[in-house]
Every structure is written in C-alpha cells, then in structure tokens.
Automatic annotation (TrEMBL):
InterPro entries in the record: Cell_div_Cdc14
Name of the protein in question: Uncharacterized protein
C-alpha cells in the first residue's frame, strides 16, 4: 500500500500568502496547524491500516497468503521511508503489540519447520477440521528477510526485538553461514539472490564483528574456510562501511560492496 498525499492540505497551504496582514497571518497559522494535525492523524490511520492488512496475511496458515502479506509490507516500508514524518509514525506503531512486524516474521515466515505428525484420525469423524500450516518456501524466507532488513533500518528497536527472538542463535544452530556461503558460491543461481545473500552476510558480519563469545564468535574463521582468505578479507573490510551514512546512501553502498564480493568469488 502506498501512502497518498492529501490534496486538500496542499490547497490550504497554497492559499497562505507571505504578504498577508498580521491578523490574516495568525489566522492562517492556526488553520495550517489544524491541517498539519489532521494530516498527521490521516497518515497514522493509513499506516495502521496498511500494517493490519499486511500482517493479517503474513500470519496466515498458507505460504502463498504469507507471501502476499510480505510483499504488501515491503511496498509499505518503501513508502514509509520517503519522509521523516512517516518514519516517526511507523516507529510509533511498533509500540503496539498487534502491529509489530518483527515478531510476526519470526513466528511464521522465519519459523523453524517442524515435523507435523497426525497422532490419530479423530478429525475424520468429527466436525472440527485438522489445522495444517504450510511450511515456508524459499521465496517466502527471502521476502521475510527483506522486510526484516527494512524494519531494522527504519526502527532501531526492531533490531533489539529481533535479538529477543534469538535470531542469531537460531541462524547458527541451522548452520546458516554454510547455507548462505553455498548460495553465494553457486554461479548458476540467480544473480539478484546471490547479491541479497552477499548483502545479508555483510550486515551480519558488521553487526557481530569483534564478538569473543557465542553466538558466531568464529564467524571470520568460518567465512575464510568457506569462501577463501581473499574473499573473506574483502568481506571483513566491506562490512565496516557507512555507519554514518543516511539509509539510502547506506543501501547503495551495501549493494555495491556485495557486488564486489561476488566479483572476487568469480575470479578465484
């Protein structure tokens, strides 16, 4: 969902003349404050509605519905990132439990798959149907990671919330480094997917750099073993980029550095 601009608000603002008399000027300021307040309330309602709609599908039992919800959330985050005011309103919504994006991601799309076994056949003879949740597909996980990345870039507390769900610990337990490295090394794989894996690896290493305790305490040794010394050195240097850049410049730098990592792997 893309956030719309209020045309009536722009019309009111255009009628405010800088050469107006003091009384008219004060009245115009009052009107403008009212317009700003109404516009902020409208944006908050639209953000809340977009979150509720996207999260409803993201929490669904079937993967195709969750993918639809994740795409909606991703488009929504792109719209939010266009202005500071919408970013502030989005951060405000993340204090409401039912509107939080990160827990929904880890409870559904990024949830570790479980072996569901049918203990008995009572549901065949009863009225209540058996509730089955379809596992996450690769496309769903990739979308969920992009949504998670966007939330963490726009809302600092979402990063801490992701730690609360033990994302890094689960990533290590599932041999995530090996899986990501295998995808990056696979030259037959889609180039965009390899780039996204490279970006994810750069963000991960930049975040856990310098850890002396688990999880991922030996991440540099693992990267050297899986991708080679030269590529590992480039990844370590590239992961230190742009912490002072604004979000758009940081994303551009991240994309460029990930491309260089892939080029180094293709050369050796």
């Amino acid at each position: 969902m893309y956030l719309k601009k209020a045309l009536w608000a722009e019309e009111v603002a255009s009628k405010v003349s800088p050469e107006s008399e003091p009384q008219q000027d004060s009245a115009a300021m009052v009107v403008q404050e009212l317009v700003d307040s109404l516009n902020r309330q409208r944006l908050y309602r639209e953000i809340t509605l977009a979150l509720k709609t996207g999260l409803r599908d993201a929490r669904a039992e079937f993967s195709f519905l969750r993918i639809r919800g994740l795409r909606s959330l991703l488009n929504f985050l792109r719209s939010v990132a266009e202005s500071d005011s919408t970013i502030q309103l989005f951060c405000l919504t993340q204090s409401v439990p039912e509107l939080r994006v990160v827990p929904a991601l880890f409870q559904h799309s990024l949830k570790e798959p479980q072996d569901v076994r049918v203990a008995n056949l009572d549901h065949l003879f009863g009225v209540e149907p058996l509730k089955i949740t379809s596992p996450s597909t690769d496309a769903e996980v990739a979308l969920a990671l992009r949504v998670l990345e966007g939330c963490c870039l726009l809302h600092r507390e979402s990063t801490a919330l992701a730690h609360h769900h033990k994302a890094i610990q689960d990533f290590e337990a599932c041999n995530g480094i090996e899986e990501v490295a295998e995808l990056i090394r696979d030259k037959q794989l889609d180039e965009n997917l390899r780039l996204k894996c490279g970006e994810f690896l750069l963000l991960l290493i930049g975040h856990v750099n310098g850890r002396e305790k688990p999880p991922l305490a030996a991440i540099h040794e693992d990267i050297s073993r899986l991708l080679g010394e030269k590529s590992a050195s480039l990844i370590w240097a590239a992961s230190q980029f742009g912490s002072t850049l604004d979000p758009k410049e940081r994303l551009t730098a991240l994309h460029i550095q990930a491309g260089r990592v892939l080029e180094s792997l293709d050369l050796y």
